Amino acid sequence: MTIGLKGDADICVKADYNQLYRVFENLAGNAHAAKASAFSVSVSVGAGGTVDMLFEDNGHGMSDIAQGSLFQPLLFFNSTNGFGLGLAISADIMRAHGGGIALKTSSPKGSVFAGFLPAAALMSNAERSV
User: What domains sit in the chain, N to C, each tagged with a CATH number?
Assistant: First the structure.
């Protein structure tokens, strides 16, 4: 897995680490299940005070049927393990943190999910020492 930060700004979100880790883990697990040999996450500061994330893999992509019900719980496609909860849980976690996630593209060459979270205000060194 590759994680890249785009731009030169400090990127900060106020979020539960374990829950965000679960989002990354769910998407990486889905990429692995899709026979992806590469999975990357790009993080950048978006317009309007958001932190934007692109989750990209080079797996076999998803059918139109799968794309239509991605974030519904207990639905899974072409999987021999799992319970079909990963994307539904990931979407709930992102919404609970004031953000969201959606499928941007999917083709036989891979899938791209776009997520966003509200950016947190950064504290200056003076504020940290108080």
Answer: 2-124 (3.30.565.10)
Alpha-carbon Rg for the chain, nearest whole angstrom, is 16
Beta bridge partners of 115: 53, 101
* Element at 118 (helix H, strand E): strand 110-118
CA gap 117, 12 in Å, rounded = 10
Strand 39-46 and strand 100-107: the pairing is unpaired
Distance in angstroms (rounded) separating the CA atoms of residues 118 and 109: 30
User: Is pLDDT larger for residue 7 or for residue 35?
Assistant: 35
Q: pTM for the complete prediction?
A: 0.79
Question: How do beta strands 50-57 and 39-46 pair?
Answer: antiparallel
The answer to whether the beta carbons of residues 92 and 100 sit under 8 Å apart is no
More confident residue, 48 or 38: 38
